[in-house]
Amino acid sequence: MVARSERLRTQGRTGQLYTPEQRRRRDATPWTIVQGVLAPVQFLVLLVSVGLIWRYLATGEGLAAANASIVVKTLVLYAIMITGSIWEKVVFGKWLFADAFFWEDVVSMLVLALHTAYLVAMFYGLLPATELMLLALAAYATYAVNAAQFLLKLRAARLATQPAPAQMLGAAQ
Q1: Which of 14, 80, 83, 167 would you call most buried, defined as having the most Cβ atoms within 10 angstroms of its Cβ?
Q2: pLDDT-derived band of residue 170, with 50, 70 and 90 as boundaries?
Q3: Separation of alpha carbons 152 and 160, rounded Å
Q4: Cα 149 to the chain's mean position, in Å?
Q5: 91 with 26: CB under 8 angstroms?
Q6: SS3 sequence of the chain
Q7: Residue 127 or residue 9, greater confidence
């Protein structure tokens, strides 16, 4: 625990998400590309699914299509989580909860739990259709929070590697 706290303090001081070695591993692994492809695919599946869910909730029509879209979204989520764990192991040496992405992984577990709860409830008929759709929307809202976490973290990492405006002026003179 002390070593983790020290790494977090050091990371916070430097503003760097990756050490130079971690950055090298991140850039060398094909899992980075896999994550880069799956993330927008998952977002597109989410948009289609939300539309189908809203259609069902508004009209009572299209339950099978809404359910199918949620299953597809969940399968894509599982794929991105499995490949993300592999990526995290390659880059940080841990399958999950690496210091750099600890809180993102914590929220990811909630996202997985809600999506899995949906599948269980659907397959075993544990909830009426409307409540099932609301559970899916809760899972999607949690996914949106998690996606925002990752985007903010990656944006901060990108900004931390760019030279400050004063440095750029000094280099230009």
Answers
A1: 80
A2: low
A3: 12
A4: 8
A5: yes
A6: CHHHHHHHHHHHHHCCCCCHHHHHHHHHCHHHHHHHHHHHHHHHHHHHHHHHHHHHHHHCCCHHHHHHHHHHHHHHHHHHHHHHHHHHHHHHCCCCCCHHHHHHHHHHHHHHHHHHHHHHHHHCCCCCHHHHHHHHHHHHHHHHHHHHHHHHHHHHHHHHHCCCHHHHHHHHC
A7: 127
| CA separation, residue 172 to residues 92, 158, 163 (Å) | 36, 21, 12
pLDDT bin (cut points 50, 70, 90) of residue 167 is low
Count of positions (residues) in the chain = 173
Instruction: Calculate the CA dihedral of residues 112, 116, 118, 120 and round it to 10 degrees.
Output: -170
| Residue 9 predicted with pLDDT over 70 | no
- Sorted by sequence, the CB contacts under 8 Å of residue 55 that are 6+ apart come out as 61, 62, 65, 66
C-beta neighbour count of 21 within 10 angstroms: 9
Terminal-to-terminal C-alpha distance of the chain: 46
